[in-house]
Structures are given as structure tokens and as C-alpha cells.
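Write out the 3D structure for:
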Amino acid sequence: MEQAEDFLAESEALAAILTGLEDSDYERQTQFKGWTINDVLVHLHFWNRAADLSLTDPEKFKQVLGALMGALASGSLRDHENTKVTERGGDLLSAWQDVYRDMGLRWSKLDPKTRVEWAGPSMSVRSSMTARQMETWAHGQEIFDLLGQQREDADRIRNIVVLGVNTFGWTFKVRGKEVPETMPHLSLTLPSGAIAEYGEAGQENGISGPAVEFAQVVTQTRNIADTSLSVVGPVATEWMENAQCFAGPPETPPAPGSRFRKTA
């Protein structure tokens, strides 16, 4: 399953810029809600383990999910994650690496259509891996920004683009709005230079530009105003101003200029 290999590669790309940091560096705050590097890795590690349980031990996963829902209802999800993942700094880096490397190898051998339970409806393991890659890439962005590192993206970004395309309607539904009949046409340039197109061509609504920047907008790691994307038409504009490819309540995208790569 290619998506598992992409998840592994995405995780390794993030781990590469963390290797060699001092434990004190993990307490540096990112531009995402004041989360520290420790907070980011705790979050990724917790949910990687939860995703793996959905495959290896569905009954145990249901128990974990029940506790999660309780923490979510009480507004203590971050505290819950922190109690379940106790490593910090270099120890956390190692624990996270051990799990994602093991998952990447095992999951790559699965039938992509295999179903697993999740917080909402069940999903395919291919969708589960895409979600894990998306989370790793999106939360990795705040660490790359904090450390002033330029990420060398690859065409595996296509998985996140597809997730953005598939959640076009969700962006409107989660805000209680009517979903437009037609998704805007997308013409996006992948890191290799290849063009990825989605939606019907020849309409008044369209988005074009770098695939990486489209992924940044749908994962809310950049405001549309801070990208070079060309956005034409009212539907395309509203989508890009509110795009949200992840589950949960409606989230407000970062303000213009608030998320950026710092000077190393």
C-alpha cells in the first residue's frame, strides 16, 4: 500500500530535522496554538498508536475511543493525550519513530480496502494512512516553520491534495452551509512539475498553482492570502477562505501573516 510508504517517508522527513535537538528545544512554542514540539509529537504518537490499534486490536481501540470521547466532551483532550504519552524530548522522538516505522512496514503489506473502525464511520486502511500522513505533514509544518527549515516536498503530497478534494463538501457542511453543486476546477503543480487536475474544466470557479500550497490551505497551515494560488469565482473563494480537510468542529484558518517560516 503506497499510502503507508508515504506516511513512513513523511514521518522520516520530520524526524530528520528533530535529530540532534536538545531536550530543552522540545519546549519551544510553535505558531500553532502555542503548541510546543513536545505537544506536536505527543499528538502524532498518540494518534498513530490509536490508528494501529484499530487494526491490531479493535476491542482495545473501542476502549481507547470511549475514553477519548469523554475527554473531548470535557474539553480535556490535550491533557488526556499527555497522560497517555509520558515520554518527552529525545525519548519521545525515539518512541514515536519506533511506532511509525513499525506501522509503515506492516501497513504497506495490507490490502488497501481492508476496513477498520474509527471515531466516525469505519474507513479503509488506505484512508487511515492518508489521514496519518496528513496529520504528520500538517503538524510537521509548524515545526519546520519554528526551526526555519525549508521542507523538500515530494509528489506524495498528492495524497493530501486528494483528501482536500474529497472534503470539499465537508468545508461547507461543517459550517451549516449548503454544499455547492459543482466543485471548482483544480490545476495544481506537483513538486516534480507534473500537473494534477480535479473537477470539471471550463467553469467560472477555478484554483491553480502549487499543490503544496493547496495542501497548506486545506490543512490550515497557511492562510490563502499567504500563498501564490490563483483563485477565481465565488465558490472557489469561499472554499479557500474556510477549507478544512480534517474532522471535528469548524476551525478558523490562521490569520494572514500569522504562519510563516522563521529565519533559522
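The chain is about 50% helix and 10% strand.
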